[in-house]
Design brief:
The structure holds two protein chains of two kinds.
Chain A (H helix, E strand, L loop, with lengths): L3 E4 L2 E4 L4 E8 L5 E7 L6 E7 L2 E5 L6 E7 L2 E7 L7 E8 L10 E2 L3 E5 L1
Parallel strand pairs in A: 2-11
Antiparallel strand pairs in A: 1-3, 3-8, 4-5, 4-9, 5-6, 7-8, 9-10, 9-11
Chain B lengths: L2 E5 L2 E5 L4 E8 L5 E7 L5 E7 L5 E3 L5 E5 L4 E6 L8 E8 L6 E3 L3 E6 L1
Parallel strand pairs in B: 2-11
Antiparallel strand pairs in B: 1-3, 3-8, 4-5, 4-9, 6-7, 7-8, 9-10, 9-11
Classes of the chains: A mainly beta, B mainly beta.
Chain lengths: 115, 113
């Protein structure tokens, strides 16, 4: 596979469940990102990892817990979520988390519904 | 702080007509600017980006954008719309440090037959 993949593509969970989202990039990049996309809102950056180290946590509630075991894989562990957490969660990667002209490549997203 | 404003949350054009999607940015440093497209049930795909070389940037699928510093704009155009162009379009500016991309709210493009 090429590019950035995400699994599962759809997830429905109750507020007491624990689940994980997985992202994998096949581009040889060193930076990975989690974004939240809600209806009628701009994309919200959640977390940034650069060379496996977290470099950004954009005031995300602790019920979202990221994990980056290596530069190719990124997880988002979910527990005791709220209905307002329902959204499309997008993963992205780039060569490094230095910003500038570096392009971020996005996965297809996981559509999360919290009941 | 940098910011992006996309004028018009929804634009509708007829097939074959000009597409113009507006983006204005605010930045205290020379910006890097991006246009992404999102088709239904998919992630974002890069259309084009401005990296301080040529001010007129050509992208995929016949789209182009012109960087105008005096107007702080980076509008996206396509001479002739196709039905397949129907999607949501996002303008973004890079903060330059830390890998942050600041996105606009998006413009949904509809194309009528």
């Amino acid at each position: 596979e090429t590019g950035v993949t995400q699994t599962p593509r759809h997830l429905v969970m109750g507020m007491t469940n624990k689940k994980s989202l997985k992202c994998e990039q096949h581009l040889g990049h060193n930076a990975m990102y989690w974004y939240k996309q809600s209806a009628k809102k701009p994309l919200e950056l959640m977390f940034v990892y650069n060379f496996k180290e977290q470099t950004e946590n954009n005031s995300v509630p602790s019920r979202f817990s990221p994990e980056c075991p290596n530069s190719s894989h990124l997880f988002l562990h979910l527990h005791t979520l709220q209905p307002e957490d329902s959204a499309l969660y997008l993963c992205a990667s780039s060569q490094e988390a230095g910003g500038g002209p570096d392009t971020q490549y996005f996965g297809p997203g996981t559509r999360l519904t919290v009941l | 702080a940098q910011s992006v404003t996309q004028l018009g949350s929804h634009v509708s054009v007829s097939e074959g007509a000009l597409v113009l999607l507006r983006c204005n940015y605010s930045s205290s440093v020379p910006p890097y600017l991006f246009w992404y497209v999102q088709y239904p049930n998919q992630g974002l795909q890069l259309l084009l980006k401005y990296t301080s070389a040529a001010t007129l940037v050509k992208g995929i699928n016949g789209f182009e954008a012109e960087f105008k510093k005096s107007e702080t704009s980076f509008h996206l155009t396509k001479p002739s719309a196709h039905m397949s162009d129907a999607a949501e379009y996002f303008c973004a500016v890079s903060e330059g440090q830390g890998g942050k991309l600041i996105f606009g709210q998006g413009t949904e493009l509809s194309v009528k037959p």
